[in-house]
Amino acid sequence: MPGSAGAFGEQLSGAGRERHRVGSRMNTERKSARLVLIGNGMAGMRTVEELLKLAPDLYQITVFGAEPHGNYNRVLLSPLLAGDKNVDEIMLHPRAWYAEHGITLHAGDPVVRIDRKRRVVVARSGLEAPYDRLLLATGSTPFVLPIPGNTLPGVVGFRDLHDVDTMLAAARQGGRAVVIGGGLLGLEAAHALMRRGMDVTVVHVATSLMNQQLDGEAGRLLKETLERDGLRIVLAAQTSAITGEGKVEAVHFADGSVLPADLVVMAAGVRPNVALGREAGLHCERAIVVDDTLQTFDPRIYAVGECVQHRRATFGLVAPVWEQARVCAAHLAGAGHRRYVQAATATKLKVTGIDLYSAGDILGGAGSEELILRDRTSGIYKRLVLEGGRVTGAVLVGDVGDGPWYFDLIQRGADVSSFRDRLLFGQALCAAT
Questions:
Q1: Fewer CB atoms near the end CB (10 Å): N or C, the chain?
Q2: Which domain of life is it from (predicted)?
Q3: C-beta of residue 308 within 8 angstroms of C-beta of residue 287
């Protein structure tokens, strides 16, 4: 795989040096290279922001987005659905921002084809845009269960503003919602719809909630808390069909049970959106494969975010995507000294008001041991996984204040043998003796 930008990269590096020496040149002279961004979401636009810091005059930038507006914070779609935020409050780059920075935005006109031979992208409208560098940030799409009835009106994902509008319209009519998926996104959607007045049931194929981030006991504690708040939760539920005459009316399960529904929210995970890259002949596996510079097998094309596969890993959390943006921007700017290195990440979440923290290997294996603290009355649960006198994983519910300290111990591989018996009680007590 190419590891550098090649001859054109040398040209960009020279352009970057020239920019510092002759900063007064006219825009038309300075912005000689053309950068096209496919995907007007958080990953791509964060890369553009980082690029503008490093080389604001290097590129003529054109952005294509599928949605008919500027870039917004998808992380805040749940507060928007719940009524805690409005659209203006979650907008990161309104249309005026693009104009202020000399960026051409084609919103609501997604790219449908990449012509690598001509170095041109073709939008749905037929518009063509040439590029010297191309950045793919096509994100991911909700996984829709391949079952009968999955296209009925009233079946919706939870990925964009249009999905939120669809759910709000259903909530105004009241009735019953079934959320398929007991991960973070599904639980947030369920809680928001319940606040909007709907009767909500969460169905999850696994035997505990948020099984990717929490162990079974933490998942059970979370389930009990959510049920006390009014959510219905059905676990080990294999959805087999959605039925209705002209719209959603019921969800069917493999065990023969049926739930009436006026709205079905698919929150059973996402899949990297790689169709455009694959059709263009880029090397794709689970996602678009990139090297340590975020460059694809085509040295003119880079990719960042949820559409990316780096060393067999794909990404969904903000922290690694932000680091990808920094590295990719440096190489686009011709300052190609950075490399993307995957780092251990910790997950700190607040699910419907419940604090959760998860880091490291929460399952453990042969030779590992566990330290567990449970306080059901106060809703506190702590579980530390140790191996060879070192902390390798941590799950916290309710009291997460020591989460970053546990994470630091995991990252450093610190020997905790001398204070092992006090570990569950946190940093303050361990440091005091």
A1: C
A2: Bacteria
A3: yes
